[in-house]
């Protein structure tokens, strides 16, 4: 299969440069790909500020993301249980897509444009149906910054009602930090895209013979947590409301997160897809690790506050009993303990 690309450079004088996918022109032959480009010349406006090295052209399809079919028509890419780096190129979160008879919905798009491009290729290798929707489960950059190739192809970007504000407030910092972590070449062309539709409560989308239930949650992992339930297979894409192996990261409300987990537990599911780990967890057993960690975080934090411990002292002891059960524990637990202590010490 062939795809259309254009080579873009940070600066034309000394690079770095990277081929950027022009989605929607895939074809079985180079001639057909070139004909598609000629029939519908792609806009390069989204690459303003970068140097264009030559005209768009067609090349053999580059490497797709690896995905697993966890249920009929439901595919998941499992990110590495690591912090973003130049070695892993930011491929550290779970992404997925669901295929209906009329269209495809993508759930999360990764940390950079290259991730979204590679996910697009994985879809194109399995169906030629249009990608009609992209659902972003929250604003963290490892889930949200690869959406541009889908937006450029006409997909509707959907998220929590709080998502546009959350992205706007953090966008500059996210773009700067991710570029530093994974390197300018791999990050080239990455940008946040506008959210086309926001959801206050729930929304159903029909992919053709397949209805997805989208649900916005109260403040929990973040202030913009959003889930996708495939009603056909009872598969829930939980985003970072559920972590597996990778220690949870608290960027919202501990009390709120525990309340949301209690609501999730009432759902009738077959499996869930966590934001990290998995890639598919049994139900309801997949909740056990999350509940155990958050309960330890709450119990130890309340005990430290009751004993009059200072924040710096408390952070050293809170949830330490959980250390053996989670990867990246030392990177995240002190932040979680700080957030929990700050939240709970001001309760009435």
UniProtKB/TrEMBL annotation:
Query: What's a Gene Ontology MF term here?
Result: hydrolase activity
Q: Which UniProt keywords apply?
A: Hydrolase
**Any matching Pfam family:** Lactamase_B
Q: Looking at the keywords, is NADP present?
A: no
Gene3D superfamilies cross-referenced by the UniProt entry: Ribonuclease Z/Hydroxyacylglutathione hydrolase-like
Q: Which SUPFAM superfamilies match?
A: Metallo-hydrolase/oxidoreductase
Write down the InterPro entries for this protein, in alphabetical order. Metallo-B-lactamas, NDM-1-like, RibonucZ/Hydroxyglut_hydro, SoxH-rel_PQQ_2
| Taxonomy, superkingdom | Bacteria
* Record carries keyword Hydrolase: yes
Q: Which GO BP terms apply?
A: antibiotic catabolic process
Which intervals hold domain Metallo-beta-lactamase?
Answer: 92-276
Q: Which family does it belong to?
A: Belongs to the metallo-beta-lactamase superfamily. Class-B beta-lactamase family.
What is the protein named? Quinoprotein relay system zinc metallohydrolase 2
């Amino acid at each position: 299969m062939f795809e259309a690309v254009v080579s873009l450079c940070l600066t034309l004088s000394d690079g770095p440069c990277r081929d950027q996918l022009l989605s929607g022109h895939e074809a079985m032959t180079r001639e057909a790909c070139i004909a598609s480009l000629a029939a519908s010349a792609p806009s390069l406006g989204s690459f303003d500020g970068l140097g264009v090295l030559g005209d768009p052209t067609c090349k053999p399809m580059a490497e797709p993301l690896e995905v697993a079919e966890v249920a009929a028509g439901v595919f998941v890419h499992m990110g590495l249980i690591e912090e973003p780096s130049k070695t892993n190129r930011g491929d550290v979160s779970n992404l997925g897509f669901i295929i209906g008879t009329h269209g495809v919905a993508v759930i999360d798009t990764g940390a950079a444009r290259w991730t979204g491009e590679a996910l697009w290729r994985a879809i194109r290798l399995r169906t030629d149906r249009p990608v009609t929707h992209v659902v972003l489960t929250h604003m963290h950059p490892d889930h949200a910054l690869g959406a541009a190739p889908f937006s450029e192809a006409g997909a509707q970007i959907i998220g929590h009602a709080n998502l546009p504000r959350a992205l706007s407030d953090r966008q500059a910092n996210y773009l700067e930090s991710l570029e530093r972590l994974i390197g300018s070449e791999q990050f080239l062309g990455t940008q946040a895209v506008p959210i086309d539709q926001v959801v206050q409560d729930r929304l159903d989308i029909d992919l053709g013979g397949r209805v997805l239930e989208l649900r916005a949650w109260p403040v929990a992992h973040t202030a913009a947590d959003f889930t996708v339930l495939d009603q056909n297979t009872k598969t829930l894409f939980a985003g970072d409301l559920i972590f597996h192996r990778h220690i949870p990261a608290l960027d919202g409300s501990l009390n709120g997160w525990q309340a949301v987990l209690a609501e999730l537990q009432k759902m009738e599911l077959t499996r869930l897809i966590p934001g990290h780990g998995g890639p598919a967890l049994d139900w309801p057993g997949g909740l056990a690790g999350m509940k155990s960690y958050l309960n330890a975080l709450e119990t130890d934090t309340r005990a430290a506050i009751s004993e009059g411990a200072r924040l710096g002292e408390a952070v050293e002891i809170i949830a330490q009993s959980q250390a053996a059960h989670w990867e990246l524990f030392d990177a995240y637990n002190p932040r979680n303990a700080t957030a929990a202590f700050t939240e709970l010490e001001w309760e009435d």
